[in-house]
């Protein structure tokens, strides 16, 4: 049953978006440390990040190539932090590859990868000069062998082919058995050396992130991570353990009219391309894959969000991979059936169309979530339950004492009025937006524009959302009049209303504190602008320079007034 826990305030920011004066074109653990200092000074209780698992050519943190391995791009790479990285080489390479230019603007992933890979390979070549660190590295390899060996071999295979899509690898390397045989051939020593490099990188990742967590805890700050429901089709997990995944279907979400500019989503839904799980096989193995995934995450994070928790009850599934979405976009159901063997997208295992199906879905979701909660140990778990939410999900999450999401402007009572924050359960996580949504300023401005639309549905939706936001924040505007421009008064009223709610967790995008319009992801669009925006200021400037410090000081006072101070 739900418990009453202390109320805490937090901010969400992707690691890549952090900026420091010494970074290498992307946020890193050094920036996270500085953010922790700022958070402690500001009386925040937690800082929330997107997934930090290793990715391939796609920089989306939700398209990881491993359920365990961490992203080397998050590493702070300086001689002061990594003793085997010599100072002369560091300054030479960062000068040649123009780290000074990479620190400006958005993340340029190809250039950042080249720079960080160069530094990591140099450091690895010198590790034997550091006997104590070498011993710790070797111990890590032994302790983590259960997942580390396969992941590192997968990285070497990616190098061989230039990409992670193993379905298009060479015929002699496109299965786990063939890959392992290749490793054991006459070139074994050379391959093992390449594998060892990737193991070294993972040792650095886990070492740095464990140290960052300890640093945060010493400041009274909890780190919050994210565990996506799915794993990439093109991952080490699927390649080496295909028996645990159903590769006939791609998971996603049902049709949604909210995305009015994306016809495919309106017609068919969101096709994320994640393979489904063969739950029967996983259960036969004691759900070891999920236990390991969860336990490794809790080595870094004190709290974690389960992304798309609805998938544990039932998952909307497509009989084609996303690469074929355009082919199906404008087809009728009958035309689509001809191409899929008479199959159409639907919920697996069951839709929520009958009481029996609902009951079955609930039983299955309960079983799987209890596995994760047991593996999480003392870590706190939050469930992202947005989307088409069955009526049994929120009561079930409450019974498990797992806070679900409350996006303030979407929470309405039976009369269609916005639910006020004081009426929230303590067992809740409240926010205005996630990384997929518009920043608050942009949302307000767009709805304000739409409130003048000649399209009645656009006008009605805009007016309803603005009215919900205004009522939630206690802002009194004359009905039927022009909505005012977004300003500091509106921004602060919205943030204070969020913080004074009864929810256990209240969090907002760091960009919303400062009224910025940077957006980190636009769902359904493959664009370089996704996952690349960075803060315009350094973390140090947030603590010291106007106007950032003024807003930070205001936040500290507001958190204390809301009785959420650590």
Q: What would you say this structure looks like, in words?
A:
- The protein has helices at residues 29-41, 87-96, 99-102, 109-125, 131-143, 145-161, 176-183, 188-218, 236-240, 263-267, 279-284, 288-297, 325-328, 333-340, 355-376, 393-399, 440-450, 456-473, 488-499, 510-513, 539-544, 548-561; strands spanning 8-12, 46-48, 222-227, 245-253, 270-277, 303-306, 315-318, 346-348, 380-383, 404-407, 428-431, 505-509.
- The strands form 2 sheets. It has an 8-stranded parallel beta sheet with strand order 9-6-3-2-1-12-11-10.
- It contains 22 helices and 12 strands.
- With 566 residues, the chain is α/β, with parallel strands linked by helices.
Segments where pLDDT lies below 50 for 5+ residues?
none
Q: In angstroms, what is the radius of gyration?
A: 24 Å
How can the largest sheet be summarized?
8 strands, parallel
Whole-Å distance between the termini? Answer: 25 Å
Assess the beta-strand content as a share of residues. 5-15%
Helix content: 40-55%
Q: Helical element count? A: 22
Query: How many runs of DSSP E, i.e. beta strands?
Result: 12
What is the topology, as strand order, of the major beta sheet? 9-6-3-2-1-12-11-10
Structural class: alpha/beta
Mean pLDDT across residues: 95
Q: What shape does the CA trace take? A: globular
């Amino acid at each position: 049953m739900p418990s009453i826990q202390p109320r805490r305030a937090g901010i969400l920011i992707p690691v890549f978006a952090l900026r420091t004066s010494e970074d290498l074109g992307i946020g890193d653990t050094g920036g996270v440390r500085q953010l922790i200092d700022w958070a402690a000074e500001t009386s925040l209780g937690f800082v929330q990040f997107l997934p930090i698992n290793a990715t391939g050519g796609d920089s989306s943190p939700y398209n990881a190539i491993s359920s365990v391995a961490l992203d080397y791009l998050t590493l702070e790479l300086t001689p002061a932090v990594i003793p085997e990285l010599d100072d002369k080489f560091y300054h030479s390479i960062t000068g040649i590859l123009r780290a000074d230019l990479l620190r400006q603007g958005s993340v340029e992933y190809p250039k950042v990868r080249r720079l960080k890979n160069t530094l990591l390979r140099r450091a690895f070549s010198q590790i034997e000069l550091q006997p104590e660190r070498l011993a710790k590295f070797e111990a890590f390899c032994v302790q983590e062998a259960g997942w580390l060996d396969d992941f590192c071999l997968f990285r070497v295979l990616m190098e061989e082919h230039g990409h992670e899509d193993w379905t298009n690898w060479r015929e002699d390397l496109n299965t786990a058995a063939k890959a392992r045989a290749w490793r054991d051939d006459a070139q074994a020593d050379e391959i093992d050396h390449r594998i060892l490099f990737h193991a070294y990188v993972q040792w650095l990742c886990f070492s740095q992130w464990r140290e960052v967590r300890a640093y945060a805890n010493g400041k009274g700050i909890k780190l919050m991570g994210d565990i996506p429901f799915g794993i990439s089709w093109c991952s080490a997990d699927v390649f080496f353990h295909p028996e645990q995944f159903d590769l006939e279907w791609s998971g996603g979400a049902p049709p949604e009219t909210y995305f009015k500019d994306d016809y495919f989503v309106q017609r068919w839904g969101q096709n994320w391309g994640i393979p489904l799980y063969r739950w029967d096989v996983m259960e036969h193995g004691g759900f070891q894959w999920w236990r390991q995934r969860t336990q490794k995450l809790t080595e870094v994070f004190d709290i974690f969000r389960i992304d798309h928790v609805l998938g544990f009850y039932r998952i909307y599934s497509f009989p084609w991979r996303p690469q074929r979405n355009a082919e199906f976009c404008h087809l009728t159901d009958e035309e689509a059936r001809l191409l899929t063997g008479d199959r159409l997208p639907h919920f697996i295992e069951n839709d929520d169309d009958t009481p029996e199906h609902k009951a079955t879905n609930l039983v299955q979701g309960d079983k799987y979530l209890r596995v994760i909660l047991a593996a999480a140990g003392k870590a706190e778990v939050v469930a992202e339950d947005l989307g088409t939410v069955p009526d049994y999900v929120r009561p079930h999450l409450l019974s498990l004492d797992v806070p679900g999401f409350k996006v303030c402007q979407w929470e309405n009572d039976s009369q269609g009025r916005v639910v006020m924050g004081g009426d929230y359960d303590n067992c809740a996580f409240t926010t205005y937006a996630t990384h997929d949504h518009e920043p608050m300023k942009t949302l307000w401005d767009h709805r304000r524009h739409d409130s003048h639309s000649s399209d009645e549905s656009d006008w009605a939706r805009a007016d309803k959302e603005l009215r919900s936001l205004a009522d939630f924040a206690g802002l009194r505007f004359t009905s039927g009049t022009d909505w005012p421009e977004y300003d500091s008064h509106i921004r602060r009223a919205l943030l204070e209303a969020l913080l004074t709610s009864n929810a256990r967790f209240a969090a907002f995008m760091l960009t919303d504190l400062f009224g910025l319009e940077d957006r980190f992801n636009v769902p359904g669009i493959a664009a370089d602008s996704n996952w690349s925006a960075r803060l315009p200021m350094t973390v140090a400037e947030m603590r010291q320079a106007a106007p950032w410090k003024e807003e930070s000081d205001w936040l500290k006072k507001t958190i204390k007034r809301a009785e959420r101070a650590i």
